[in-house]
Design goal:
It comes from Niabella ginsenosidivorans. InterPro entries: Amidohydro_3, HutI, Metal-dep_hydrolase_composite, Metal_Hydrolase. By secondary structure, this protein is of the alpha/beta class. About 40% of the residues lie in helices and about 20% in strands. It is globular. About 55% of the residues are buried.
Length: about 425
């Protein structure tokens, strides 16, 4: 080891949960976790040089940052499905829904997705970038160092571009990495004069070329559901978007099963929601290699069933968990709380939960350089003031991070 390089040694930590050596797909047991006791992390700039016993690393390196005793380290979390670029609030929708109103009734009373579209359109680029960065900062304090952010509340050329530019500009303010996704196929806009099929053609010909030109996003999403976009219309849309160089992800099987089949056929990176998936959809996803994303916050917000995470894992799927932070169905935005609650209902091991918000979630975004604490990976990690990693899910979000590091730099310390 060349000690002349700018190495920094962080530790000692009570436990380092590396997530190294675990498979991308399938069920996991806690015994499979590599947990280093009294460990250290050796940094080389923004990259991890080594993770090992602190005593062993300290013998070879003199530049020590610490000590950080009685604490646990995990890889930085990845929230691979959010809608945090929005304006307004849907608190009235929540109250009406809990009072027995259905979606169409809420929409008729001025609520629903379109109300968020109107509120988001009213924001300037600067305002939208600021609120997006603020929400990203809240997620960072939870230990989330990579955040996917969707458009989808603009729904015309000007406003979709504004939203994606706002995500780009929010990156200049945010300390977490933001990954932009175009969700122009969210719903058919009320002010679009044409059919669902015509609107999808409009996105292909008028919007996506501009997104590529400005390099605003490399990912395309669509809401495949009754009242949004039918599977038979979305598949050719995805195929054209993929031919243009976009990666694909799908809002699938939230209320009715159909979108997961599209995800498999389109070669999507992930199929997200899956609350209504049956064994047929579960098995199809397992064979396809599409990553299955559970969004427990939406189930909690809507009062509906959770995605069948246990069955998905047992069938051999790669299962991830994300917040789905949005103003309508999932306003909580608390990843560890949602993941821990899902674990209770679906009987998920700690290993399965942690994999779902680290390296498996990174894979769902096509990222191979994070989510694991090992040599060559980004030095993204979260530190908890506890002597056992099991306390983190056990306390269901009540235990908050002591510190968050991003690319080898401390970006958040709890007061």
């Amino acid at each position: 080891m060349n000690t002349k390089q700018p190495y920094r040694l962080l530790g000692p930590f009570k436990e380092i949960v590396t997530m190294e050596g675990l498979p991308l797909k399938g069920a996991l047991k806690d015994e499979q976790l590599r947990v280093i006791k009294n460990g250290g992390i050796l940094l080389n700039g923004d990259i991890i040089e080594a993770v090992d016993s602190f005593e062993k690393l300290a013998l070879l390196n003199s530049a020590v940052v610490g000590p950080v005793v009685n604490s646990v380290v995990l890889p930085g979390f990845v929230d691979m499905h959010t809608h945090i670029a929005f304006g307004g609030s849907r608190a009235n929708d929540f109250a009406l829904r809990n009072s027995g109103s259905h979606y169409l009734e809420i929409a008729e009373k001025g609520g629903g997705i379109w109300s968020t579209v109107e509120a988001t359109r009213e924001l300037s680029l600067l305002q939208l970038a600021a609120v997006t960065a603020q929400r990203a900062a809240e997620l960072l304090q939870q230990g989330i160092t990579t955040i996917e952010v969707k458009s989808g509340y603009g729904l015309n050329v000007e406003q979709e571009l504004k939203t994606l530019r706002a995500i780009r500009d929010a990156q200049q303010l945010a300390k977490a990495d933001l990954v932009a996704t175009c969700l122009a196929a969210h719903i058919l806009p009320k002010d679009f004069n044409g059919s669902h099929q015509a609107y999808l053609q409009w996105i292909i010909h008028e919007l996506l070329p501009l997104i590529r030109e400005e390099q605003l996003a490399t990912r395309v999403d669509a809401f495949v559901e009754k009242g949004a976009f039918a599977a038979e219309d979305i598949l050719p849309y995805y195929q054209k978007a993929k031919a243009m160089g976009f990666d694909i992800t799908v809002h699938a099987d939230q209320f009715t099963p159909s979108g997961s089949a599209v995800a498999a056929q389109a070669g999507a990176l992930s199929a997200d929601h899956l609350e209504s998936s049956t064994q047929k959809e579960i098995d199809r996803l397992a064979k396809s290699g599409v990553i299955a994303t559970a969004l427990p916050g939406a189930s909690m917000g809507l009062g509906c069933a959770f995605a069948p995470a246990r069955k998905l894992l047992d069938a051999g799927n790669a299962v991830t968990i994300a917040t789905d932070w949005n103003p309508g169905s999932a306003p909580m935005g608390c990843l560890m709380t949602q993941a821990s609650v899902l674990a209770c209902y679906e009987r998920l091991t700690n290993a399965e939960v942690l994999a779902a918000i680290t390296f498996r979630a990174a894979a769902g975004l096509g990222l191979k350089d994070r989510g694991i604490l090992a040599r060559g990976y980004l030095a993204d990690f979260v530190i908890y003031a506890t002597d056992s990693y099991k306390e983190i899910t056990y306390q269901q979000g009540r235990l908050q991070p002591l510190a968050v590091w991003k690319k080898g730099v401390s970006v958040y310390t709890a007061k």
